[in-house]
Design brief:
There is one protein chain. The protein is built from 11 helices and 9 strands. The structure holds ligand 2U9.
Amino acid sequence: MLEELLQLQETAVEKILATKQLKVLEELRVQYLGRKSQLRQIMASLGELPADQRPKIGQAAGSTQNAIKTAISNQLKLIREVEESGSHIDVTLPGRVPISGTSHPLTKLSYELTDIFRGMGFELFDGPETEDEYHNFDALNTPQDHPARDLHDTFYLKDGGLLRTHTSTVQIRLMENQPPPIRMISLGRCYRKETVDATHHFAFHQMEGLFVDHNVSFADLKGTIEAMGRQLLGPRTQVRFRSHFFPFTEPSVEYDFSCSICSGENRECRVCKGTGWIEIAGAGMVDPAVFESVGYDPETYTGFAFGMGLERIAMIRYGIDDVRLFLENDLRFIRQFSKIQ
Ligand code: 2U9
């Protein structure tokens, strides 16, 4: 019986000191001191014990009862103090830094590029990622036998549609519904059948632009690309045009920006490999055949167009060497950009 009383006292006090809520404390008081409690039954059964054991068990039952009562009143005082002090948090403890989200680096870059072109009066337009062959190829002077059209380059859908391979489709849809002047940019995800590796992915992001009006010249194109380069990579950024070919522009160029990392002074430059130039993408004067496909008179209107891959620019800017990082949602990668405006 003494052992039982000691065990009872130990368990009761332990539970009482562990509780932080008044309600639970009251439940424990009833459980251990209440009429139906084990202790009360022992006390009630004292009369049945042999006379020589009664004083000792009686005295032990009394001190168990006091120990439990004392523990309850101490815990009551403590819980009240904590409640009155309103916060049982140690206010000297450093606060938990709320985990704030951040924009994906490609989103940050697309916001920045959009602001740059809005600053030059370009308006952002969107369009569907699933397209048809006409808007993705035919209207862009890309003939049936053009390699870009064949199966291993383009994701064709069962309904005969396809996943757009560039955002040029948005420009075509706009020109079908709006006469010149046109000053627009489009940006978004595009798809090409690429073997995924550190520099290629089947899903990638582009920004393209189109400017159509009377007497739009190649100089307007160069001026626009230069203005973008300076705002994107710094005021001393130079632009270099190299002749190229696209089915939807004539003449066509690829354009490079002067290396913002080494300004051509570092032979081992990780970005320009010491050439001093960073290849960005392409541009050109809109091919008259494209205007014909949307009903614009190529004798009245001229225009320039340009494109750029967002992953490429982000990799140059943030020193990222693997394009797969952009789409793998690894928070360790993404969180690095929380501090970047
Ligand atoms: C219309 C007329 C012309 C859009 C253009 C490029 C050059 C270009 C690249 C961006 C990244 C391809 O994936 S990429 O490497 N694009 O270099 N895009 S001219 O020309 C157009 C578009 C629409 C109606």
